[in-house]
Specification:
With 81 residues, this protein is mainly α. It has helices at 2-6, 10-63, 67-80. The protein is rod-shaped.
Length: 81
């Protein structure tokens, strides 16, 4: 690339320009892939959290623990301090 850019031949300069464009495009695709993977990981984390919350809710339901019971327990702990 350096030799192409230092050349005074218009064909070499055009080749350098094409090479630069190819490198930029490759880098853009690489970054796009990284962003896509990051978005997919974030979505997976959200789904895991929702799944965990659903399991906790179902377990609490099976044990007969209601929101009122949890609220009362928390209130007693706060007041008890």
């Amino acid at each position: 690339l350096k030799e192409l850019l230092n050349s005074r031949n218009p064909d070499d300069l055009q080749a350098a320009n094409r090479l630069i464009q190819t490198l930029v495009k490759a880098e853009d695709q690489k970054l796009e892939g990284l962003h896509k993977r990051a978005d997919e990981l974030q979505r997976a984390r959200q789904l895991c959290k929702q799944f965990e919350e659903a399991i906790i809710e179902k377990t609490a339901e099976n044990l007969g623990i209601t929101a009122d019971i949890v609220y009362t327990e928390l209130k007693m702990k706060v007041i008890g301090r």
